[in-house]
Structure formats: C-alpha cells, structure tokens
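Hey team,

Filing this mostly as a record. A colleague (T.K.) asked me to run one chain through the structure pipeline before their review meeting, and I want the input and output archived in the tracker in case anyone asks later how it was produced. No errors, nothing strange. Just documentation.

Input sequence:
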Amino acid sequence: MKSIVINDIKYKRPPKGRISMYAAILALFLSFLFLYIQNFNTVNTLIGFRTPKIRYDTYTVAFEGNVPEEYKVLAKDNVKDMVFNKKERFKFVDSKADITIQSEKTDSNVEVLSETLIPVGHLYSLKTATDEEDIKNMNVYVLSDTYINFLKDQYGITAQKIESVEALVAKMKESDSNVGLITYDSLNFSMKILKVGDQYYLDNHDAGIHIRFYATLAEGVDSFALDILKKNISTDSKVTDTASLLKLNMSGVVAISRDLGSKMNSLQNYDYPAEKLGPFLSDADLTHISNEVSFVDGCVVAAGMRFCARDQYMESITASGVDIVELTGNHNNDYGSANNGRSIEMYKALGMDYFGGGLNNEDASKILYKEVDGTKIAFIGYNWYDTTYKSGAIAWSDKPGANEYSEEKMKANIAEAKANADVVIVDFQFQECYCYPEGDVVYPICYKPLGNPDQKGVFRKAIDLGATIVLGTQAHQPQTYELYGDGVIYYGLGNLYFDQWNWIGTRQAMILTHYFDDGKYINTKLTPIYMDRSMQPDIATEAQAGQLLKSLKDAR
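Output structure:
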C-alpha cells in the first residue's frame, strides 16, 4: 500500500491495479444502464430474443403537368426493385398521391431532380457563346432520347438524337450551326463549351439548359420518403463537383523590360502590366507564365535585344497569382547566368515552382509534378531553338540556363512522367516566326506552324510519345491549334506582358484555362486577350476575339 503526503497529512492510496478494476466495473454498469434507458425496446428485444417489428410503408407517387413520359418511365424503372416482403416502397398513381412530381416551381414544392445540359461546339468552332433563343435556331443534337420531349415542351428546342460522342464531335465539326447539348460526363477536350451569356459552365454550373423537377408532399407524409425518391429517379449522368476540378491557367511570353520597363519606371507602378489581367490569371488553382527575362540588381532597361528586369517588376508576377514559372526562354542569360540563378532563387523564396530551366543542366532537366484535388500533372519544358543553334541560353553542368532538347531525352521524360502523373504537358521554346511586317497589317503566315524547321513534326512527336497537351511559348504572335492523336497542340500563345504593341499580330494573344477532374483532362477554355499602346493587356472585345479566332482557323 502506497501513501502520499499533502499539507503534512499522509494519505494511503490503493494500488493502481485495484483502482482500474473498480473503475472498469463501474463504467460497464453505467454504460449498460444508459443504453437500457435510451434504447428500452431494443435492449428488451435483445435480452428476450424477440423478433423486432419492421415498418415498411408504401408511398404513392403521381406526376402532374408536362413531365415527359421518358422521365416517368425512368422514375418507375429506378424504384421498381424497392420491395420488402412483396410490399412496394413506391406505387405510382394518377392523382391524390403522397408525393406529386411537377415540372413547375412553386413556393411550397422542393427540387427532386436537377440536371444541366451543356451547350458545346467543336474545338475549332468560331462560336463562343449562345443562349436559349439562339439554340432554337441551331441544329441541336443530344445523346439520349430522354431529353428530346423535355427540350421541346419546356424550351421549344427541337433536338435529334445522335448515337455516340464521336459522332457528335464529327457533326459539330461540319458546321458552327450544329450544337450539342450534353451532360458533364460526356464532355471531352475535343469540344468547346459555349458560354451561356457571359457564364462558362465549368466556372458556373448554372450556365446551361436546365432539367429540373419538383415534388410536393401531402400533409402528414414523412420527408424521409422524398429523400429516398430523390436518390433514385435521377439519370446516371455525373454531376460536376467544383471541389474536384483542377483549374490551370497557362499564358505566353513574359518579357518585362525595354519600353514596358521604362513605362513602369516613369509611373513608379510595378504591377502596371497586370492591373487588368492579374485577377483573371490569379483565379485558378495553378497559374503558369513563361518568363524570358532575369531580374538584375541595378538593371537599366534599354532598347535592343538584350533584356533585364528590375527586382521591383516581380510585383507584376505576384499580382498575376503565378505559381509556376517556365524557364525555357532564350533571354534569361542575357545578363549572365549568375543573374538567372539569382532570379530562380527569388522564385523559390516566393513559393513559385519552375521547370524547363534551372540552376544547372540537371536541375533544368527535372520534371515538375503538381498535384491538386486528385489530379497530378507533369510539366516538361525544352528550349529547342538554342539547343539547335548553340547559343548561350542552355544550362551547363555548373551554369544556370534552359533545358536542352533531344528526341531521345523527350521520349524518356514523357515515359517517366506518364508513369507518375495523370496528365503530361510539354512546352517548347521553338523558333519564332518573324512577325514584324512593314506597317500595322495582318501577317497570316505567322499564325501557321513553321514549315522549316518542322514545328508540326516536333510538337506532334510529343503527342505520339504520350503527352496530353503541347504548347509553344516562343511565339510573339499567336499560332493556330489542333487536335492530334490523343491530345491537343497549341503552337503559340503570343505575348502576355511585353512591349510589342506596334503590330496587330503581337497585340493579339491568348490564355488557356485547362480543367481536370480526378485525373482526367476535361476541357480547355481559350480566352483571347489584346494589348494596345498602353501595354496593359486585357480580355479581348468580341470583335478582337473574333478576328483572332478567324485568323487561327484560316491558318489550320
């Protein structure tokens, strides 16, 4: 027997084992007493070995208004096997039911089924937006008979069923007057989601044609019945979960120097180029830029082809919400590789990742993996141009620079990336098209991929080897895009932040917003942007966007 002393008084303390035994017995008794009180009938049944009574009510269901026959059949088929001891859970009647399903919303009923049909065209379509009235005048295709009568009755839209997603894509490619209305689970990257008004479905799930039915409960009917019915009368189409979507913004050339730098210096406004587009770029899980200019302490911006940026210009990058900096550009070593290395350390200090270049050739060759919301993406970048023409932009064993290109290296990199990621994105610093004609005129040749050297051949090889998305980030004038193999190629995105406002081609550019869901590449939204002599790019107007998309289509 042990004892303790408190305030000079000695107390005897029982052995620990005995305290534990007493406590356990008391806890068991109290637990049983609590269980008995709370669950009197259940405990008596268990003790007395009585058979419990099971309540299994049948609820009557009726349809009211213009609910299409297809949805009535769907509801009946989905609940017909809900039977216990030969007693149905739901019985369908013509009227005076426990649950009445209607197509019209009232103050007293509740939503029981909700689906959205997404309007889509082909990826190459020049059409970017639509609405209910516009769709009525188009050739509309759906993938299920279920929707045909509903669309006619509720919206006045005449639709035809088409047999497969592949046939739908082919039909939309025939004409921009053809439109598909599809559920989310049929969506793929060969389609272009059409905005409804100014809303885009993957950003706002109300941007579509809605199928909604509502239910009214008779007085005294338990809402439990409605919960069961709601789970069993919907179609099998998947509903978009915003939380599972990975949104990635990717943009083109950033070269904050020369005239743009001088403008910022004069204003002492160092996030100046990002004032209009910064919030748009930031609105993503991941935001990428291709920065071609290193930060140099004491940089004096000047005309010419040798670029540097002041440290303060980093404010433009942070104001754009940048997470990933691509370093394949051929100007990062203009003021020496040490300043390139210093810039990389600045990115790291700000929590930004990088790829396509690095502190040495081993670092530059690394694949960048980013995983968000169940999707893992591999980023790989190469400087094809300076590898080919042997400039000083390429990283060495002891010198920062861009990642060297070879087909063998790319083959090994993509194989490794595919083994470790859901999606593989490959970026190239290719040879630039000389897009500076006499006068401010459209220069069609530079919207095309280069023929010599063979830009198509190099970019397509990346898809052949297993890449999902291939980008050209060298282009100061945007280049066309194409579906190829099992992926998509954007040959050039144009300028994001630079000073080339003198030519219409270099004023035009685009931002790509890629969407991924649980490891699957879902879709890309192409947003045309435009820069005037202010050198502040902004979302293109409808006319500016239409001109760019037409030029890209003509160049395909």
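Quick notes for T.K.: The mean pLDDT is 90. The longest helix spans residues 16-38.
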